[in-house]
What we know:
This protein is an alpha/beta fold. The protein has a single domain (6-118), classed as Response regulator (Rossmann fold, 3-Layer(aba) Sandwich). The chain has five helices and five strands; from the N terminus they run βαβαβαβαβα. It has a five-stranded parallel sheet with strand order 2-1-3-4-5, sandwiched between helices. Helix 3 (60-70) links the parallel strand 3 (48-51) and strand 4. Helix 2 (34-41) runs parallel beside helix 3 (60-70).
Amino acid sequence: MASILLAEDDESLRKFLAQALVRAGHAVADFGDGSEAWEHLKTSPFDLLLTDIVMPGMDGIELAKRAAELDTRLKIMFITGFAAVALHPSSQAPKQAKVLSKPFHLREIVAEVDRMMAA
């Protein structure tokens, strides 16, 4: 079981993802913007940051950069429709971050989370 911080501004997608991950045996704290997620991340340990890139408050790349500096062991996965942005060197996204492009099936994200946590 992994402790996952989920940051996604689309509420219906966020709740759907959180529910699927909980059903898969993970503990999930979910937030609708990067700033709220960052505040929670500073006070609670997590195994995985699962974040969208485009969000209000603080975008996912900035959230991931700060999170990686705070905890070098934290695994990071971007869920986004803007994969090229996350992968572009100028984005300064953490190098170890995985990118899962939207749209995706819930089975894909649960399987990818399981793979990341097993590594």
